[in-house]
Amino acid sequence: MRLSKMHLKTLREVPNEAEIASHILLVRSGMIRKLVSGVYGFMPLGWKAARKIENIIREEMDNAGGQEIHMSAIQPAEIWQESGRWYAYGPELWRLKDRNGRDFCLGPTHEEIFTDIVRTDVSSYRQLPMNLYQIQTKYRDEARPRFGLMRSREFIMKDAYSFDADFEGLDKSYNEMYDAYERIFTRCALDFRPVEADTGAIGGSNSHEFTAISEVGESEIAYCENCDMAATVERAECIDAKPENEEMLTLEKVSTPGTKTIEAVADYLKIDKNRTIKALLFVTYDNEGDVDSYVAAFVRGDRTLNMVKLINALDVPEHTIEFADEEEMGYETGCVGGFTGPMGLTNCKIVVDSELVQLKNLCAGANEKDYHMINVNYGRDYEGDIITDIKTLREGDPCPECGKPVKHARGIEVGQVFKLGTKYSESMGAMYKDENQKDHPIVMGCYGIGVTRTLAAVVEQHHDDNGIIWPMAVAPYHVIITLVKPNDEIQALVADKIYDTLIKAGVEVILDDRKERPGVKFKDADLLGIPVRITVGKLAVEDIVEYKLRREDDKIEVSVDEAISKAIKIVSDEK
Ligand SMILES: [Zn+2]
Questions:
Q1: Is the pTM of this model over 0.85?
Q2: CB under 8 Å to 483, separation ≥6 — which residues?
Q3: Interval between CA 228 and ligand 1 midpoint (Å)
C-alpha cells in the first residue's frame, strides 16, 4: 500500500478524554475514530490489526474443533425471558422495540441464541459433543464508557459455546478451550495470566479469566508466588483470622461520642481496628423497583467488604442492590448511621463474615447515637441470617492454598471461559436422548474473547512515548519503507524495487511516498508502530539503505538486497 493513497489521518494532539496509552495512541495514529461516547469505528490500519487478531482466534478455534457461524446482534426479548435474564441482566442490556412495540435487545452475549439452536437441531447423543462460535459485534449500555476500546458500548467479541452429553465431556471441552486461549494470547504477544474468576451474570459453576497484565487494567488479581493460586480479587477466598484463646467478657455499652468511623472508634477506645466490627448497609429492590429487603453486612473493622461475594451470598442480580439511605433504613430496622451494630436490628437481613463467628470480645455499634458495645460475641449477643466469606483478600494476606502472603496485580480481562453446566439447557429445554431414548439436558460451556479489547491490550503492553510497537503477528503491516525524497529518481526506483520484491515474498508493506518532510515521516512511522522500517535516502545511489526495527533503537546501513532478506526473514520468523 502506498501511503499517499491510504486513508490515514494522524493527529499531533492527544484527544481530551483519552487517559491511557492504548486509547491515546489508537486515536492519534488514526486507527480508530470515535463516533459517540463508547462507540468507535475502525480506519484501514486499525481494522487490519483487528482482523489479524480475529484470524489468530479463528485459526485456533478451528484447530480446537470449533465451527464458525454468524448470528444476528438483534435478539427477541422472549428468549431472554425464558432464561430469566431479561430482568436479571439489568440496565446494561441494550433494549429496543420494533414498530409494533415488540421488545428486542442488542446482544451483549449469545447463550440464549445458541441454546435455541441446539434445542431445535440436536436430539441425539450422536450429535454431541459440538462447539459453535462466532466473531461478532456485541453491545453493552455501559454507565461509564471509557478508555477507548477497553470499556466501550459496542465491541467485537468471539463467543463460543460447547455442548456435551455429560459433565466429563464439559471438562474436556473446557480444557481444550483453555489451552486454545493460551495459544491465542501467546500468539498475540500478550503477557497474560489465567485466573479463577466469578461467573457473574453469565452463571455456571467454574470460570477462568484471562488477564493481560497492565497497570491500567480494571481487573485486580491475587496470586501466589509459592503455589499456583491465582484468582480475581472478587473470587479469591480468604482465610479467617485464627481466634485467640479468650474468655468471653461481659457485654458493656460505652459512650463513644462522635466516633462515626472505625478509625475514630478504635482511636477513642485505644484498640486495634481488628478488634472492631464494621457495618455496611444496603437495600435490594424487586422487579417493580420497590424495596425488597434491607441488608446489614458485617466484617472485621480492618477488612474490606467484597461486593461480589455479598451479591452471591444474597443471590440477587447485581443491579438490584445499592447502598441504603441510613435515615430511611434506620427508621425501618433500628440501625443508626455510624453506630450500627449487629445487635437488636429488626426487619433486615444480617450477613456476617465467617471470621466474626470465631473472634471474641469485639467492639460494635450499639444502634444508638454516640454509643458502642464492647465484648460483643457471636452466638451469645447476636446471630446472622447468612454466615459466609464476604471479605476481600488483600495483598499480603495468607494464600488460601498454602498460607504464604499473596500478591496483587492489575490486568485487562481479555477472555473468560465458563462451565455453564445445565443452567441454560434446563431453563430453555435443550435436551438430547441417550442410547436408551432417555432425555437429558445438554451440558454447556461458554467462552468469550474481547477482540477489540485484546487489540487495546496489545497496544497497552507494546508502546513507547513515540507510538505503538506492534508485535509482528498483529501488526497491520510488517514493513514500512520510508522514502526520504519521492522526487529523487534513484531513491524512488530503489524504494519501488524493495516494495515490489517484498510484496512478491508475501510481506505486507507500506511505502511512505508522501511529499512530506522526512521528520514527519519518521514520526508517523514510529506512531503507526510498523515492526520493520527501511529508509531509502541519499545513500540509495550507492545501493545502501537504513534498516531499523521499531522495538530497537539501533539502525544499520545495509545493501538493498540485505535489507530485503532481513525483512523477509524476520517476518516469516515472527508472523
Ligand atoms: Zn499459595
A1: yes
A2: 491, 492, 495, 511, 512, 513, 521, 536
A3: 6
